[in-house]
């Protein structure tokens, strides 16, 4: 198979489909989403069979248990896909929304209309349900999509792709609006990220290695985050009960998510009160603590190395550092963090405001768990990912992040003087 | 001089200054702008002398008259720089503006705060007044700036840079917040656009060749437009009096600007009425017309070649094409245009809406001159440039386009369930 020719053809078809999908009515897009949900429901048997094939190949190729688990399409995961499609259908359509329409002194009326980006390339790893999640958000926001899933999920993804194609066709929309790459050749990824003539933006979902490689090699903008090294800073003016619950939740609610706390910072004035209570909680939940020298003088913990401060553990490990003031906390966060999500626990008005202003992260919080950094929790309805970049979309990226704006101007024969 | 070491030092200083300028109060930033205006006013003699040196060098190096004209700092251009500084000081500060703050079902309160991008690199050609314009917008939006002007304006730019540095110092802000590169070595540009660790975004201002080269080689996002191939489409339902005035204005108000009409599209049903009147106006103003075959059958004009449809003349030349309907007009614009600014002249509601929706340009207009596509006319207060890209900023880019947003979350000890 000539991958370059194949990807060019996929790109051309996507670009062509984008010119149709940009004009699709809200009704037709929703119909496509709801019909896809029905086809998935009717195809449970086919989906599970395709998935079984992937699981067997995975076992034969020695995939580890965690990967096999992520790869599996259980009935409940199929339910979740169907539910997700119904939810995205229920979200407001961002396309065509006009805001800020106002008259100017010249007499023209100027506003901004929200428009799709065009063609979005999604590159992701083993979870086949991402196929539906990503495709539905891109479709609702009026974009054509090219999806490249993990090679280990090829059969599952193709089976899901057929349901989406049927859903699009039932709604009278071009099936090419959602294309799932049907080759496991890795050169396909290299092509996808270097075709600015066909692809407007890439959204990679997966491990840091994948995302770093894509960011480095892409000739197309990439909406992404690499790490989630999130901090909770317990200030000297914190309500220590709140602090205990929030820090506990930020670390232990889920270990493997990007908005999980990886480093706890504690003001020296409250460390000897707070840390022993917190350490007891962590001991109950078998979370390993790695502390700075001052921390080790208060609670028993392993020594944190320089590397710990910039490590995303994604597991039951937490680094702990005592700081002398807000300045030191902010400096530490901006230096070692990943600009994802950071929270201060404080009852002090001025310090709370300073933390919000000075921490350079996509989400900054006062007295709330970092685990709230999420498209659903923020009211975006859904999210395609989280961006720690500053340009275009930052923080959880929902339908709006998959769109752009254009200026619209109404006149009555107005000319510039 | 070791350009790589020099640029690294400039980048480091900019990054450090950015951490200060992000926190600067509106008052201090405005003071810096107003003080710069005063220092420029007091330094007229020095500025003119420095500029004389550039002009002499330019003449000795055989610069053409147009370039020498753009290079010259007349008293009236100095007045304009001072006026510009005062205007930017009077604009609202975008930094720290919080919008969409709302309670979520979990009880947290979520909103978005506008924040600076960080360090902005500006690359521009001969006009020294760009130094002040660009620096003032970046400063007001809380960014540090590295400016690389044309080598022919080196002395003028350095003299202006001294005024800005004095203004920053007078306001107690770091002088490194605005740095003007003091070498004419072209390697400096290559460095500036490939230091993502120090520079967050590049804004190039100048000819298409410069911008293409920068976009191709940059390892940093670039806010830009390449061409301004703007269209006016006179629909069959146009009010031909309005159409005549708007098309005339779009072409002849100024020839050299990016929002000037370069191609006129006319519906076949009104071509024989409209074109002779329009051609008479253009003849008065000595605008050369290059028409399609159908156009040549109605008015006397040179033949337009395929290349004409994608040419930005930037002068008194206009290509003219007769189309059979809106679909053909939209197809032509999306294929040959530069996604900058396009206008329809029509009294028909449905066709106006279709044009706004289907033309994929950063500004789309009904019954108004393309010349309105401009930051001042749109109410942005000022503009650093116009973007035809879809990601981040699109259309005229003002202070807001030089900022990003971060999510702010207020809780009262909220944890995720």
TrEMBL record, chains A, B:
The UniProt entry's GO CC annotations, sorted and at most eight, read: cytoplasm
Subcellular location(s) of the protein: Cytoplasm
Q: Which Gene3D superfamilies match?
A: Aldehyde Dehydrogenase, Chain A, domain 1, Aldehyde Dehydrogenase, Chain A, domain 2
The alphabetized list of GO BP terms reads: L-proline biosynthetic process
Tell me its EC number(s), please: 1.2.1.41
**Molecular functions per Gene Ontology:** glutamate-5-semialdehyde dehydrogenase activity; NADP binding
Q: Which UniProt keywords apply?
A: Amino-acid biosynthesis, Cytoplasm, NADP, Oxidoreductase, Proline biosynthesis
Q: Which residue spans adopt a coiled-coil conformation according to this UniProt entry?
A: none
Question: Which pathway does the UniProt entry assign to this protein?
Answer: Amino-acid biosynthesis; L-proline biosynthesis; L-glutamate 5-semialdehyde from L-glutamate: step 2/2
Domain annotation Aldehyde dehydrogenase: ranges: 11-288, 298-373
Chief place of localization: cytoplasm
Please list the reactions this protein catalyses. L-glutamate 5-semialdehyde + phosphate + NADP(+) = L-glutamyl 5-phosphate + NADPH + H(+)
- Function per UniProt: Catalyzes the NADPH-dependent reduction of L-glutamate 5-phosphate into L-glutamate 5-semialdehyde and phosphate. The product spontaneously undergoes cyclization to form 1-pyrroline-5-carboxylate.
Similarity-based family: Belongs to the gamma-glutamyl phosphate reductase family.
The identity of this protein, by name, is Gamma-glutamyl phosphate reductase
Q: Which organism is it from?
A: Oleiphilus messinensis
What does the organism's lineage look like at the top?
Bacteria, Pseudomonadati, Pseudomonadota, Gammaproteobacteria, Oceanospirillales
Corresponding gene?
proA
